[in-house]
Amino acid sequence: MDREVTSIFGYVVRRLLQAIPLILGIIVINFGLIHLAPGDPITTLVGEFQVSPEYIANIKKEYGLDQPLPTQLLFYVLNILKGDFGYSFSFKEPVLDVILERVPATFLLMMGAIVYSTLCGVVFGVISSRKQYSHTDHFLTLLSLVGYSLPVFWLGQILLIVLSLKFPLFPAQGMQNLREPLMGMGYWTDLLHHLVLPSFVLGLSYLAINTRFTRASMIEVMSADYIRTARAKGLSERIVMYKHALRNALLPLVTLTGLNFGFLLAGAVLTETVFAWPGLGRLMYDSIYTRDYPVLMGMFIFISVGVILANIVTDLLYSVLDPRIRIG
Amino acid sequence: MREFWKKYRRNRGAVCGLYIVLFFLAMALLAPWLAPFQPLSIGKDAFHPPDATYLMGTDDLGRDLLSGVLWGARVSIMVGLLAAFTSTLIGVIVGSVSAYYGRMVDDLLMRVTEFFLVIPRFFLVLIIVALFGSSIWNIIFVIGILSWPATARLVRGEFLSLREKEFVEGVRAIGASDLRIILRHLLPNAGPPIIVSGSLQIARAILMEAGLSFLGLGDPNQASWGVMLYNAQRFLRHAWWPATFPGLAIFFIVMGFNLTGDGLNDALNPKQKGKELQ
Lengths: 328, 278
Prior knowledge:
The structure holds two protein chains of two kinds.
Chain A: H1 2-36, H2 41-46, H3 53-62, H4 69-81, E1 87-88, E2 93-94, H5 95-130, H6 135-149, H7 152-166, H8 184-222, H9 225-232, H10 237-259, H11 261-275, H12 280-290, H13 293-321
Chain B: H1 2-9, H2 12-34, H3 65-101, H4 103-118, H5 121-132, H6 136-146, H7 149-163, H8 166-174, H9 178-189, H10 191-217, H11 225-233, H12 241-268
Helix pairs in contact in B: 1-12, 2-3, 2-12, 3-4, 3-6, 3-7, 3-10, 3-12, 4-7, 5-6, 10-11, 10-12, 11-12
């Protein structure tokens, strides 16, 4: 056990070291964009706001804009590594603070989407694979095709029109009822009530992917030798299905969820825009509108690092769940 | 070709998808004759509900939505085709060079490919378009040059297995040049999976343009479905039709290309039937 822990620790360290060049690459892309963008770098570093000449002089000094490019890059990387992502004029706050304030809301939304799309996707996928080529199977296949092709923001708009405006079953905007803020238990049920529609919308395409994936994976696993062995031992079909097949069929789902993390974030941005959910997406939308470039650039770095970390966590989870993957 | 069509026809969904794609293609070509109004010209009648004059109603500026939806097919198909073509071209070049030359070149190119696979593409496209301006050509170009990594990996995989085949050794023994081997012998044999991935790329590019436009980064001078949904968002309480019809169009065209891609996959790569193209 001890040895296993140290080997996992070593693995984590190794993966984190591998992430460093990726993160540096992302910072370099950002730096390149600041200099390639039309207009001068100051506009990109400040955003399209009227600022005092003193402030501009200050920015020039902070980013070493009078130095040669390589030195400027060094200044930029160091600033980012210090956690200084610049200052947002529309929010009158440092960019990093603006971003961090919004993370919990987006995280909540994504968790809601991941949990329901995984649970339902697995159930649908298993049903589909058990009754291959039946009406249920065809129906679920069609459903997942539809879910896969629906633009998430449009689905949000339609559900909002129908379920919030025509038949007010769900709140249309935001994360909580601002008119009569609730406390204690009421706060949480209110939050949950607001969460239902956006997370349903965000999760639908993943529900589709997970259903298709589980179906294919189950069909493949059910024809494996060890399943035949388990059946030959006289185990009941139920036990073979759930104890032997499902476990192995679901392992790759972990990787799939990790790989899709970036797409899920993109979907969250679009969903939040529809429902005025106060997370990163709404922030992105507002920053595009006000041309607050420092926030946009900061978010790109932040989100990229988040995706890289999510990939590491996924691989780690996979290697813990599947003893066949030897790490060390 | 006839055999291919026979195989393709067996998949009802794929045939359906092809019809949808052809329908939108016709719409894009015939938009100037079919559209009753100029798609971007502002009318007096704002938020006119759908009726006999305005089949899909009008938006907040009194623009006819049907005309917008018809012209929007042009924008979406153009974005889809050009972006997918660009990304496939880059992907094929990177993948074939990487596989054919191997060693250092392969290592380097695959590192770069992995890097571009990891970074969240939508957000990179988004900031580039935000900084460089959201003309339709910018959008197409940026989506195109950032969507190649999956194709590069695919082509590399195909080439690696083909490279070892005897016929390649044969033509090399005759003295064929590298370029000739790649273009005349390897590429045609790797064609089917490239075509499949290209058709799925079209669907993704269309969705991405719509998403960017919905966030306010669309080309305001084009009748783009995504831009129409962006405009509709502020008025959802007033009118349901400006959001409904353009979105329906996006949904169907994306489904059409997805179904066609799946159908091509089944017809061209029978071995992979049923497997996900993830």
